[in-house]
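Hi support team,

I submitted a single chain yesterday and got back a structure, but I'm not sure I'm reading the token output correctly. Could someone confirm the output below corresponds to the sequence I sent? I've pasted both exactly as they appear in my results page.

Thanks,
R.
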Amino acid sequence: MKKGKKLYEGKAKIIYATNDKNLVIQYFKDDATAFNNQKKTTIEGKGVLNNRISEHILSNLSQIGIKNHLVKRLNMREQIIKLVEIIPIEFIVRNVATGSITKRLGIEDGTVLKEPLIEYCLKNDKLGDPLISEDHILAFDWASKNEIDKVKKMILRINDFMIGMFRGVGIKLIDFKLEFGRIKIDEKNEVILADEISPDTCRLWDSITEKKLDKDRFRKDLGDLIPAYTEVARRLGILHEQSNVSAVNVTKLSSIKRKKK
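Hi R., thanks for writing in. Yes, this is the structure output for that exact sequence:
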């Protein structure tokens, strides 16, 4: 698979063309952003961890019948994925109230929801990814009623699976963001899961201590997120490659200390 020109660069990933018009290469960057890119930095190794964790989750979702864009992981930072037409909606799935919803509605942080809550945000950084309703989606033709109904069914299945997967390794799935795209399958337009699922797009708390194991560590200045992401990978049983990330950071830190002396 030959990597071609850059087609798109987002906050966390770069998409490259390939010699197959239906496939692209997705590169995971080390950039960390929050609050619609108002806070940003580079954290060495983050892209490596997200690449591997997302591959693991998407591969497992494929096994339970959730069609998604992942074809295979190429290396530590890249995946081959199907080229899809992204629906311009971020689907937010909440199991526990925290973050923006507590500020908007005055809900106590940590409130466990009786049923999963699905919220919709328009994918538009300039507008701050505003919260929208299903009526907005239909009124402006961002997706059809049939597409939204299919997506909601997939979301609930994905949520059930991920809650169980993370619970099994001592992690609470608090909330997460999903994106979907359109693709032709057997000459018919279908909606499939796209983008990534990683600690960048999920809120993950330790089941006992409620320690944050996600991007909130960066958002709220809770400390280095690499150990937290590495812990998620370790618990999921995919640390064998991520150990290289920790080793690099430890080596760099030791080198800096020696120079200071």
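A quick pointer for reading it: The CA atoms of residues 92 and 142 lie 16 Å apart. Let us know if anything else looks off.

Best,
Support desk
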